[in-house]
User: Fold 3-oxo-5-alpha-steroid 4-dehydrogenase C-terminal domain-containing protein from Malus domestica.
Amino acid sequence: MEVGVVGLLRTAWIAATLPILIAALPFSWLSSFRGAVLGFAKRGKTMQSSSQKFTVPQKFFCHFYLVAVAWTTVLLVATLMYAYKAVPLVSDSLLHPSLPNPYTGGSHIFSWHKSHLIPISYKYSVWHSVLLLVLMEVQVLRRLFETIYVFNYSSSARMHIFGYLTGLFFYTAAPLSLCCNNIADIYKFSINGVAEFIVKGKSSMREVEFDWLQLVNSLLKLGWLQWIGAAIFFWGWIHQRQCHAILGSLRENSEQNDEYVIPHGDWFEIVSSPHYLAEIVIYAGLVVASGGTDLTIWLLFGFVVTNLVLAAAETHRWYLRKFESYPKKRRAIIPFVY
Assistant:
């Protein structure tokens, strides 16, 4: 299962990224293909009012984050319970013989004795997944809050149905990519727990004692690279929140004045799409926090970069067409470069 999931995810990320890279090639014979890809990426202000075919309301963005929060929470809880009960970093005293260890195989009676055979590198791999999923949960919870309470999507704002389906794919595949190397063992552990509950019943199962101090100590044992990655993540997270607040306030005013205005403040002073730049920083933080050796997470990051650069370029062109006085020093998404 593990190899299948990892291979499927990697293939999916490559398949999703490749059309964007091909569309970026400067060949005239690709103009029709480039136009189709750009059409799929357009939404909101960058989509012409006449282009309403195969579109859905932009407020459907909320669906992405409902799916993301639900799915990330399921993966986080399952991964955390597996890490805490089966492969703890702090001490083997956290292992309860009533819960099976799918990594070692065999029944729960012997799992505790076999726990010493688990490679320490594997234990750290599982706890890296826990940290990555915690960061992802922080991100999608904030995005869900923003789509409901910060953004005031116009009733006329639309996005292409292909872009909508891409968003649903992304927020299903991205959280899974953060723990895919351990998902087979996590799945077995979860299934065994459910089976034991069904067979024995709640009254016959030992109550799970969760020690938050032990959990924190396990996370603190992760390496310096993980915490540098977390710091990069929150740097981007904070700036994205600020940029979204600026956009949200502009959308409130545009509803009243029926007119777009040039955004100012924070990273808007250097790029046209600072919220996209912050998203790239956020996922760069996840790459660093993962240790930088997981190809699946690198492919996820590659899709994020190519997709957002494409969208930011289209937004930048829209600003230049819309405003004659648009600041010339601003770039599309990469400060001072592009």
Observations:
- The chain has a mean pLDDT of 85.
- Strands lie at 55-57, 158-160.
- The radius of gyration is 23 Å.
- The CA atoms of residues 232 and 285 lie 5 Å apart.
